[in-house]
């Protein structure tokens, strides 16, 4: 396959963003435009990080017809591999920005080839390069479909436009160095902006069945006061939601000394901040499995009950497997 056949594909490193207005003007609130492009730049950088490629991004003069902006992705690798990778990055960002959150589970990297102006030979070459990238960065590339930072940044982009009524729709297209379209232009109308905006910033909590917390400051009286413990190298305030354990402490049946710790079922509440980063916002101890007295583990009633249930379930599963093996 000759390089000339792929020339358009390899130079398809520019994303065109077109903001459409209901009037004949070509101007846009600078704060809104800068916020939108800030979010797009963040998504492009995240994709580049996932693909392990260093890039720079250049902007080009505005075009006519509403407002058009061009973002050109340039690889710091001065070879064909770098050029192909930038083409993939731009293709990916164009797909991400037109894919509603409800469809985020679809394989975005496979949607690059939909509605493209590339011929079959170009598609096949690009497909092979994508497969190579996926093998080299398998664990990272697979996260693109549900990457929290990407989803939040996209949400920020459309939330900014949703609050700016002048924009009727926004469209995206990949172009080459001559501004020739390599993909078909895809538009998102204002009525669909809400499909791209996160309803909540809360994430599913993390469950730790056997978390160990060293108690720094227990709560010895009744009330909704936070305990303080040492967990994974840092002091954290947490809610003790085990009524059984709180009663033992309040009745003086458990004495805390320096270095006292508990093994517990810990729930860590999380959310995504405005930069798309996952942060922990709260810790809840739902069950205490056992505590320590002079380094000796003392199992609690609720801990014993939970352990017995798990053992029964494990034995039941083992019997079922043995029965199935006998039948086969």
TrEMBL record:
It comes from the Bacteria. Keywords: Coiled coil. Residues 116-143 form a coiled coil. Residues 309-328 have a biased composition (Basic and acidic residues). Residues 302-328 are annotated as: Disordered. This is Uncharacterized protein. It comes from Ferruginibacter yonginensis.
């Amino acid at each position: 396959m000759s390089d000339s056949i792929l020339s358009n594909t390899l130079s398809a490193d520019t994303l065109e963003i077109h903001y459409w207005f209901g009037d004949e003007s070509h101007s846009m609130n600078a704060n809104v435009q800068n916020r939108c492009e800030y979010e797009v730049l963040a998504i492009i950088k995240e994709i580049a990080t996932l693909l392990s490629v260093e890039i720079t991004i250049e902007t080009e003069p505005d075009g006519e017809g509403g407002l058009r902006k061009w973002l050109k992705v340039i690889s710091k690798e001065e070879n064909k591999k770098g050029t192909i990778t930038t083409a993939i990055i731009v293709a990916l960002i164009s797909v991400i920005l037109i894919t509603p959150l409800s469809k985020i589970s679809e394989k975005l990297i496979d949607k690059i080839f939909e509605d493209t102006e590339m011929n079959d030979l170009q598609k096949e070459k690009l497909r092979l390069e994508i497969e190579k990238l996926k093998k080299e960065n398998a664990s990272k590339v697979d996260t693109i479909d549900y990457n929290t930072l990407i989803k939040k940044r996209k949400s920020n982009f459309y939330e900014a436009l949703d609050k700016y009524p002048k924009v009727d729709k926004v469209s995206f297209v990949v172009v080459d160095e001559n501004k020739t379209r390599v993909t078909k232009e895809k538009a998102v109308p204002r009525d669909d902006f809400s499909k791209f905006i996160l309803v909540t910033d809360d994430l599913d909590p993390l469950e730790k069945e056997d978390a160990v917390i060293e108690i720094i400051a227990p709560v010895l009286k009744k009330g909704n006061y936070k305990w303080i413990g040492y967990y994974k190298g840092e002091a954290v305030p947490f809610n003790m939601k085990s009524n059984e354990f709180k009663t033992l402490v309040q009745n003086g049946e458990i004495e805390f000394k320096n270095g006292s710790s508990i093994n517990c079922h810990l729930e860590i509440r999380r959310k995504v901040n405005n930069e798309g980063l996952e942060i922990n916002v709260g810790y809840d101890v739902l069950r205490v499995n056992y505590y320590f007295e002079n380094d000796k583990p003392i199992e609690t009633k609720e801990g014993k009950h939970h352990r017995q249930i798990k053992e029964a379930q494990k034995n039941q599963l083992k019997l079922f497997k043995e029965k199935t093996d006998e039948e086969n």
